[in-house]
Every structure is written in C-alpha cells, then in structure tokens.
Write a structure and sequence with these properties.
- The protein is globular.
- The chain is mainly α and 169 residues long.
- Helix content is 48%, strand content 11%.
- This is Transcriptional regulator.
- InterPro entries: WH-like_DNA-bd_sf, WH_DNA-bd_sf.
Length: 169
Amino acid sequence: MKIILNVMRQQRATALQLHELLPEVPQATLYRHLHKLAEAEVLIVVDQYQVRGVVEKVYALSEEGVNLTEADLENITKDDHMRYFTTFVSSLLHDFSQYLEQPDINMAQDGVGYRQCSLYLSDDEFAEVIVPFQEALQKAMQHGPAPGRRRRTLSLVIIPEAENKSEGE
C-alpha cells in the first residue's frame, strides 16, 4: 500500500497505469489494495471511462485523507488498523520530506514542529483536554483556501499505554 500511495501522491492513475509503474507488485495484490484504499476513502475515483467493454477508473488521493467513523473503527481488524496507521505514518514522512526538499525553509517561521509527550490523565481529565482541542480544530477546518492562507497539516496520534495484565491480576 505504501508503494501505491507514494505513486498516487505524484499523479492520478488507473489500475493498469499503476500496474505498469509497479511491475513488482502482483496484479491481484495491487487490485486488492486499491479496493481497500478506495473503501477507506484514502483514494477516490475522479474519472471513469469505457475501454473495450470494461469501466476503467482513474484514482487520486483524497484531499481529506482517512477519516474513520466510530462505526468504521468497530468493524475493522487489527491488521486493518495497522495498515491504516502505516498509511498515515508514510504520509507524514512523505509530507515532511517534501517540506525539507525546499531550497529555503525556516522551520520556526513556518510553524513546523514535532514532539511527543506523555500525559497521565484520568478519562475525565483527558476529555477536558481533548474536547476543546477537537472543537477548535473543527472550527479551523471550515476555512478553505484563500489569499494569505497556507495549508498546514496537523497530525495527532493518541496512543494509550498498553495495559500490563500482570499488574491487574
């Protein structure tokens, strides 16, 4: 999937074009991954046309990225979660790499940052922190492209510590 997404970041493509660009990926695997990425709305169909009785779909990366609902989260496997997370992380790596390849960057002026911190919070305390943050993000996400605005990607990962079963037994 990572290889497919790296190609799709640069262009729109049909399954046949992807197969030609990625001959090392078995065709059945390519189609299976395309189907899963389209189901998850990571890829969207932007055009389709008839070719010798078959509908050829043109895929592109979704501008909105992966936004799984609670219902989606309930119905996907651990392997699906790992695939989606891998896609998310590879997207971060690609975007940061593209940023660093610019000739003149000023990370402080551009607002670039990355950090990790651990918070020890009860569920209620966690809600006090995250709910206002989510509300502020929802408000900011309503802004579209306009003069004076620059697209900025904010990525947030929340991972609770794995429960140590030997402690609770």
